[in-house]
Structure formats: structure tokens, C-alpha cells
Design goal:
Elements: E1 2-7, E2 10-16, H1 23-39, H2 47-52, H3 63-78, H4 95-112, E3 118-122, E4 125-129, E5 140-143, E6 151-155, E7 161-166, E8 187-194, H5 197-209, H6 214-219, E9 225-230, E10 235-237
Antiparallel strand pairs: 1-2, 2-3, 3-4, 5-6, 7-8, 8-9, 9-10
Helix pairs in contact: 1-4, 4-5
């Protein structure tokens, strides 16, 4: 049972092999929609917009907002400030952490419904579980930064999350918070494999903002592996990355 819907400005695909019923898909998609309504900076009526417009005080934040903002602050500290949801104008944009958080939570909802073999994919960031319909390991293709039709690497995450950050799909939406006016054009893509999609996503964003040193930052974290592509098409990867390149 597989379905794709456009939510949060991106395609969200859920594929459940051992489907316990269509309700699990509807529940997961409804969760993504509710997350978008709360955290979208493009919706004037969202909670994050109310915060940015000083229409909502901290005492009235939802539990979900507190959780995401606390997680963002922890990530900022863990990445030496390279992950920062505060925009240049002082407003907050938690989208760099909300996507991985939402994928992880949606996957938990699918699992809670009784599914064991499934994946959740939002904008190319993926949380798999179990095996595919052929009984094989789920495979995730890393697309070329220069030709989206080309797969340059295939990984077998085995239940781990896979997230990619880069400028080739959405343009320069990631910047170095320590030097906001500088745009690093040396790195075009960085894929991170983490214990779950939230961990992979939040550190992929920070590592990409670091530029070339980002792959070294991933190497230093034993729970993460990474694959970086530079503007010349050269790939650099962490010492354990190739462990995920064979089923």
C-alpha cells in the first residue's frame, strides 16, 4: 500500500508492505498536515507565524512547539552554532528540524498501527523499517547533484534514517550562521545516515553549513555516517559509510 501526497511544500510518500489497514496512512498524512499548519512560516495563521509576529507569548506555546524549539537549541549547541533556526532578521524558521522530526513521528504512528515493513519519505529524507515487498532490504538512492535522473550511490539503511542537504534542489537555503553573507559554493550535497531520520536530518543541515569541514564533523560522531559531494563532482565519505553500501 503506497500513497504520495503534496504536504509541507514537498511530496510525502508512505509505503506500507504489511498494511494493517488504510487508516494508518490517513493518520500519518493527517499528522504531516497538522505539523504544516503549526510550523509553516508561509501560513499567517500558523503558530510559528504568531510567534514571529509577537502575537503569541511563550507561556502559550503548544507542547509540540516547546519540543521543537528545545530540540533546535540543543542542536545549535551540539553543532557549535552551525545549526540555528534564527533567521537574519531575528525571526524563527524551524523547518530545518521540523521535517526530520515529523518524518520520525509519522513513522512511529505507522508502527503503532501494527506495521513493521514500511518507509516514510518526505522530500527525499527517508525513515525505513523492516523489508520491502520482495522481502529484501530497503534501498535508498542518492541522486546526483548535477543530474537528478542519475543515482550516484545506493545505500541500505537497515532501519536507519537517511537525510540529504544541498543547494542543488532548492537553491541556497542553507547558510553559515557565523558568516551569513558568505555562500559556500564548494559543497553541493551531503547525505547523512543516522540512528533515525531526525538525527540524520538535523546533523546533515549543520554539516552542510560547515562546508568542507562538515564531513569531518560527521566522522567524529560515531552514530553518524556521511557522503559529501563537492562542486567538482568528487565524493568524500566517512570511514563507516561503505558498510551501508551492501545489503
Amino acid at each position: 500500500m503506497r500513497e504520495t501526497r503534496l504536504i509541507m511544500g514537498m511530496p510525502v510518500t508512505i509505503d506500507v508492505v504489511d498494511a494493517p489497514g488504510t487508516d494508518c496512512l490517513d493518520t500519518a498524512f493527517a499528522y504531516f498536515e497538522a505539523t504544516d499548519r503549526r510550523f509553516s512560516t508561509y501560513r499567517d495563521v500558523s503558530e510559528i507565524s504568531a510567534i514571529n509576529q509577537a502575537r503569541l507569548g511563550e507561556a502559550d506555546y503548544s507542547d509540540e512547539m516547546h519540543e521543537v524549539l528545545d530540540l533546535a537549541e540543543r542542536t545549535r549547541r551540539e553543532t557549535l552554532g552551525y545549526f540555528d533556526i534564527r533567521r537574519r532578521d531575528g525571526t524563527l524558521d524551524p523547518s530545518g528540524i521540523v521535517k526530520g522530526w515529523a518524518i520520525r513521528n509519522a513513522a512511529r504512528l505507522v508502527a503503532a498501527a501494527g506495521a513493521r515493513d514500511f518507509f516514510v519519505d518526505a522530500g527525499g529524507d527517508i525513515q525505513p523499517s523492516g523489508r520491502n515487498a520482495e522481502g529484501q532490504e530497503w534501498r535508498v538512492g542518492i541522486r546526483s547533484p548535477f543530474d537528478p535522473a542519475e543515482i550516484i550511490k545506493v545505500v541500505y539503511p537497515r532501519g536507519h534514517g537517511v537525510a540529504t542537504s544541498g543547494t542543488y534542489a532548492r537553491g541556497g537555503h542553507i547558510y553559515d550562521p557565523h558568516d551569513p553573507g558568505h555562500e559556500d559554493v564548494d559543497i553541493v550535497g551531503l547525505t547523512v545516515i543516522g540512528p533515525d531520520i531526525l538525527e540524520a536530518d538535523r546533523f546533515a543541515t549543520a554539516a552542510f553549513a560547515m562546508g568542507r569541514p562538515g564531513i569531518g564533523f560527521i566522522e567524529e560522531r560515531p552514530e553518524l555516517e556521511g557522503y559529501m559531494v563537492d562542486a567538482g563532482g568528487r565524493a568524500t565519505f566517512t570511514s563507516g559509510f561503505e558498510d551501508y553500501c551492501a545489503p
